[in-house]
Amino acid sequence: MNRFRSVACMMLCLSLTGCALTSKAPNFNGLKYVDGSVPVHINMTKVALHFCIVLPFIGDATLDGAVEEFTKEAIKEGAQRIRIVQSNETALWWILPPISFILTPRFTNIAGDGLK
User: Fold this and answer.
1) In this model, does residue 96 exceed pLDDT 70?
2) Band of the pLDDT at 110, cuts 50, 70, 90?
3) Do 62 and 108 meet the contact criterion of CB atoms below 8 Å apart?
4) Distance (Å, rounded) from C-alpha 2 to C-alpha 82?
5) For residue range 29-71, what is the model confidence (pLDDT) as tens digits?
């Protein structure tokens, strides 16, 4: 039974990696950006499993990969320009050593505005 739980937990963790969790806030009550464009705020978190802390293995939670996914989401919202407000990278190499030294869970968060 313990072995089944371990395998089920590992499969659940692997199924949740390599994805991007996105939330949007398009309602600015008619307010516009400084240059007159209509903003939509996008907050995106990329979750991935990296090999030896730095090499993408399942998904890509590097800053470059997260910015690429962020711009794709902004284009879907009809944005012609973006303004990134904040970004943050977290590598959980310390969570379960020595396994996490080899397969490292990693999160990257980017928040910004898509401007129409």
Assistant:
1) yes
2) very high
3) yes
4) 48
5) 888 888 888 888 999 999 888 888 778 878 888 888 889 989 9
Q: Cβ of 69: how many Cβ atoms within 10 Å?
A: 20
Question: Do 82 and 114 meet the contact criterion of CB atoms below 8 Å apart?
Answer: yes
Burial of 37 (0-12, 13-18, 19+ CB in 10 A): middle
CB atoms within 10 A of CB 6: 10
Q: How many angstroms separate the CA atoms of 8 and 11, rounded?
A: 5
Q: Residue 97 corresponds to which amino acid? A: P
Tell me the domain boundaries of the chain.
18-115
- Tell if the pTM clears 0.85, that is, is over it: no
